[in-house]
Amino acid sequence: MIAVCPGSFDPITHGHLDVIARAAALFDEVVVGVGQNPAKHYLFTPDERLELVRETTAGLANVTAEPLSGLLVDFARAHGAGVVVKGIRFASDFDFELQMAHMNAAIGAVETVMLPASSVWSTLSSTMVREVASYGGDVSAFVPEVVARRIRQKSQGGEQANG
Ligand code: PNS
Prior knowledge:
Elements: E1 2-7, H1 14-26, E2 29-34, H2 46-56, E3 63-67, H3 72-78, E4 83-88, H4 91-108, E5 111-116, H5 126-134, H6 145-157
Parallel strand pairs: 1-2, 1-4, 2-3, 4-5
Bound molecules: 4'-phosphopantetheine (PNS).
4'-phosphopantetheine (PNS) is lined by residues 6-8, 35-37, 68, 71-72, 100, 103-104.
């Protein structure tokens, strides 16, 4: 069975990679959907986020990454995926993911599998990583080295991707 792991990955963290690797062990193939939430402002452009996901998942033989635009259920159908995998950290994640799982089941007959975040990454978020990095803090414990390097370049350059 093919699974989809959707997210905006701004940037991809060890927490995301943990969920993707565990999904890759459970399913035949995993397609990571790198999407865009119009309500959010992004540090990295869509192409940069996709490139970092591809680079950091290159060691996982059954994982690919593709841009996600439009509905997640359409992305899943286009890739032959019948299941969406989401990592869950706190109750607030669950509340939101449950709503989305019900909607995606209703509009696309797609199942959702929720994986509890591994305890070591259970409170990690891209938002926190960006916040620490924006003040010049060290985020190298939370993201792969290639990502830490790109964040440093962005933060020093004062860049921000708009959408
Ligand atoms: O958790 P994130 O990073 O904000 O997720 C972003 C993304 C793009 C994966 C998410 O917003 C999404 O799934 N968008 C697709 C639009 C869609 O299908 N919406 C209805 C879901 S109920």
